[in-house]
Design a protein that fits this description.
This protein has 3 helices and 19 strands. The chain has one domain. The chain is 12% helix and 42% strand. Strands 1, 5, 6, 7, 8, 12 and 19 form a 7-stranded antiparallel β-sheet that branches. Strands 2, 9, 10, 11, 13 and 14 form a 6-stranded antiparallel β-sheet that branches. The termini are close together. The N terminus is likely disordered. The chain is mostly beta strands and 258 residues long. The radius of gyration is 18 Å and the shape is globular.
Length: 258
Amino acid sequence: MKKFLKCSVIALAAIFVMNVGTVNLLASDAVGGQNQITDRSTSVSPTLQFPVNGENYSASATIDAYTSLLQSTVWVWRNSGVNLQNGWFGASSFVYDNSGRLIGSTGMTYNNTPTSGIGVFTPLNLKGVIGQSYYSWGEVRVYNGATQQYVSRNVTSPRAMTSRGADSNINIEKLVDEFQTALNNNDMIRAVGTNGVEGWIFAKDLQSESHSTPENAIIQQARNRNTKTTSFIDVFADDGVTVIGQFPIHSGTGFLIQ
């Protein structure tokens, strides 16, 4: 049985549900004037399988919703269970709300200890809203020692459901396509800033640095974390010029799979 290291108590619940998806907060009961969630909802999708240099790898994610916590975790692991060296695994995670707005993200996070896989989760400051649906996707990277390049894959949810069981008009795969298009065309996507104001951010500002080697990835990651754990990018009005807020990109916190 695999062991998961560096697990927080809150994140422990997500360990055995390693799939991408959407999650819905269920109806609540008012108890003593406080809204209490009657159940927790986790949505999953099929595990993505892909080869790297003749070895098989898997990627997936999960998203859990509470009024006290909304969290997405993206996973990538080596099917054989054999450890890879520092910096050979990378993962990042994104969370969207029911309106298709980006509300949380992490930068690309690499393993700094030999491991057979990692899971990277969004920060603990996000909170769910009763009756809302949430959506996640992530990028995973595995280093190919033969070609000396990272192999990248996206993991996405197959569909979104609202808390009442009706189909939502949000398609997470379409949002990922829009992100990639914006990235290629230096365009913007919708997001909510730290001040709660909706605006637009340039997709390229979210893009994690490309590293030529695992060694470079680990060095840059350590350097970034020595200076700050969260960086901020500008949120713009429709004109793409007027700055109306800031959007945080958190250093990912993660699990090591042993």
